[in-house]
Amino acid sequence: xxxxxxxxxxxxxxxxxxxxxxxxxxxxxxxxxxxxxxxxxxxxxxxxxxxxxxxxxxxxxxxxxxxxxxxxxxxxxxxxxxxxxxxxxxxxxxxxxxxxxxxxxxxxxxxxxxxxxxxxxxxxxxxxxxxxxxxxxxxxxxxxxxxxxxxxxxxxxxxxxxxxxxxxxxxxxxxxxxxxxxxxxxxxxxxxxxxxxxxxxxxxxxxxxxxxxxxxxxxxxxxxxxxxxxxxxxxxxxxxxxxxxxxxxxxxxxxxxxxxxxxxxxxxxxxxxxxxxxxxxxxxxxxxxxxxxxxxxxxxxxx
Length: 303
Fold this sequence. Notes:
- The chain has 303 residues and is an alpha/beta fold.
- It has a single domain, classed as Aromatic amino acid hydroxylase (Phenylalanine Hydroxylase, Orthogonal Bundle).
- The protein is built from 13 helices and seven strands.
- Strands 4-3-6-5-7 form a five-stranded mixed beta sheet.
- Helix 4 (91-99) crosses helix 6 (137-155) and helix 6 runs antiparallel to helix 7.
């Protein structure tokens, strides 16, 4: 599939220089605020592998990290490198980076008025949320295998299916542990609101991971998730995309998509959600439509 040429000033692979010295005092203050509030929330909620990796990488709570220094610590352990990008990059470029153990991290960080809502991933989401688990050998191997599988899926017209797998694991995945359910998805780890919501709120479903089920399931991009999928281990995740996925893609393509809040009789249900939160939101939207054009309001799902 053809990829549009990179904008002027950006390399063909969409990488740029981080320009660490260009960050302002305010930029570092934003990083410090985001880091410290997640640092207070995550113990007892996130998988221990994340906290272990965060400490091994010696990621500072006080200043935006230098990508080169982090790569120097990460690459000898799992072979992964961090590359700076200006923002979202084309899918084919992103998959190419992952397939070659390069993780793209957005170089810019949100403004102070964007602490709890952001339309696209910034440096804090990409670095704090994603990079630590790349220190885990099994998860690191999964990410490379995912990039390779996504390249094949793109050629097979199955990007929607492989994209749902990424969304419900790498971004919004939970894991079962002897101590209970724990977070590992970067979209949760980097979000104050979703860190609490995904484990404590009665509204969302928490369902055992099954790759076919995940590939059929729609997701929310504008709000908290209606369903979270729970893996047993990173090894389960790694083996979920082993081998030729083409027959699975064909099978899923012939089946109807499932709503984000669906619960099936065959699901392994850790918690069947009440659905009250999203039902109330849909009711408000319908009432607003009856009265006239809606007034936009920010979602707390990201940040």
